[in-house]
Amino acid sequence: MKKILVLVLGLLLAAPLAFAGTVKIAALIDESGPTGDVGKPYGEGIKDAVQWFNDNGGLNGDKIDLIYEDYAYKVPQAISAYKRFNREKVVAIHGWGTGDTEAMVKFISKDKIPYFSASYSQHLTDPAKAPYNFLVGPTYGDQTTVALKYVKDNGKARTVAFLYNDSGFGRAPFFPHGEDKAKELGVKLVDTEVVGLKDLDATSQLLNMKKANPEFALIQQTYMATSTILKDSAKLGLPTQYIGLNWTFGKKLVELVGKDAEGFMGTSGFAFWDNDEIEGIKFLKELNKKYHPELTFRPVNYVQGFSSMYVLLSGMKMANKNYDGENLKKIYEGMKNFDTMGLTAPVTFTPESHKGVSALKIYKIENGNVKPMTEFISAQ
Amino acid sequence: MNYTNCGNFKSDYSKDTALFQTGFSRLCIYSLLIALVVMPFVLDSYFIYIANMIFIAVIGAVGLNILTGFTGLISLGQGAFMAVGAFSAGYLSLQGMPFYLTIPLAGIITAVVGAFFGIPSLRLKGLYLSIATLAAQFIIEFIIIRAEPITGGVIGLSINYANFFGVELDDDFKFYFLAMILAVSMTMAATNITRSKIGRAFLSIRDNYIAAEAMGIGLFRYKLMAFAISSFYAGVAGALWAYYTTIITVENFTIMVSIQYLSMVIIGGLGSVLGGIFGATFLILLPEALQFISDFGSNYYPAITQIVGSLKEMAFGLVIILFLLFEPEGLVRRWKLTKAYWKLWPFSY
Prior knowledge:
The complex is a heterodimer of chains A (380) and B (349). With 380 residues, chain A is of the alpha/beta class. Chain A is built from 13 helices and 13 strands.
């Protein structure tokens, strides 16, 4: 009888110990919706970051309990998920798109939950308006600035055209930011053309552009439309050098376009899987050998997801078990030149800006591989 | 399919259209209202949130049902009309107007816009009209993205919470009462519209527009009125949504929203106010229920999270197909059948 009593008491005492050391963190990603193709690898990056932390001592011994949810890019579903996360008392969230993250800004600020997201929207970078939103990655505006700086430094005629699709995503980098920046830097904007995200023909737009004959053309599209533009441009024999923003290029573009993708330039704040010289990529390759031995390649979105979650978790580790929202905010805002193993430029948050990274590299497609052609260029 | 108690005779037409057919139905409605008032005090904030979503959806769906269910005009523009309402409320509230003015004004502005896009309905019917309203959806989205000084363009608007004489409606509990009062009063209004001359004109247009015109019903006038009323509801729903999230972007009101509202009306039951309520409730609860199953199941099979994610999309389509096949008249018919069954229970023949 005594034995049983001791056993029961022991179990009762042990139970809270086993649970004491868990921290709940939520991830809200689109896997089955319209942005699922990039969301899925992003989510895998997040999961791997969590697993790596858990396998290496957790957060100072606390195990991370990741609540992962697919919201199919629907705002109401995202809000509903957020309410549930709140009920589960998660201490931080990693989210995904622009619409849903923006819709939650007020809730997040009120509940004081640090919220990282993959959206590079302007609303989210100003702590006065969105005090608990953080983002690791250069905004579209910053990418445009860096591309225009490159044009200014390396161009001869310094003329540029904008190719975009007519949506929030397409217009965000160029109007009015790109127009103003070009003026400021002394780059001449000679043409703007609209190419739809799913267009399979861009000949007429490119013929229009040919008349203006820009030296460079900046592209804000996804793989599909970018491949259309590159193919049609090769067909028409245009001499224009294209520079795409981060969603336009990657291994996939090479697969879609083939040899006409050679020489395509793109801006990205994140390292690519081909960049073996970067410490972080070496690290991730080792990690994947261990966790996913069947995989040999990861798209850049995986790197994105991993680095963003890596920053989130590192901040929580620095918090030393004090996961209070205000304390976490203070710790993130104190992050200065935080090293992500070269996966991104060093991350700095300040009380005035929650835009972690504003420097990025320009990459070029050479022999079917994405290779960096510059060091980090700051948008400031 | 109207079963009433035996001995319940009516001696004039006004009794036939009375809001409460029997004392019992009056009792039911009043107890529902009391339950609605008591509910937020006992539920936790997640369920209050779901109730809020249902209230917003009910307003939109009841409005669309007036257009599609009662008048027989299919509209694929409800999402865009909600956007008009949300942005009007947002713009007006940034000019310093309180919410009790902006919400009705947003409704009126949306009604005007809706009536404008309803003009083609005089010439177009069925599929052709739905394409015309689809155009409305895209045209409105296009304009909102362009009209930067008013709508903030792609960035959208950021407004403050509704302020009720010093009380900020900044959480689910406080917002509940605003949404509930609006949902209840607008449902009441819709019920009364359907009992009036206007409602009967709508029905006659749906059933046979030539006969309706021969009977002296001005088609153009009543069709536009249907569009205006339905858009007014959409506008109020959009304005409520704006005050709920306080950040308004055009991404929240895409064609998917329009399709969702149309499915609410179909699933709930065309041509019935109750159908709009049922459909809205059902389609809001469906993903939540699936999520609950997934959360529960993932304790045993972690892979279920991924499956349910895709399942949610499928379930939506599946439910619509199943309803069209097996219950084209919607949940409302099921409800009536159930009621009729219990009326005679346990001595049904």
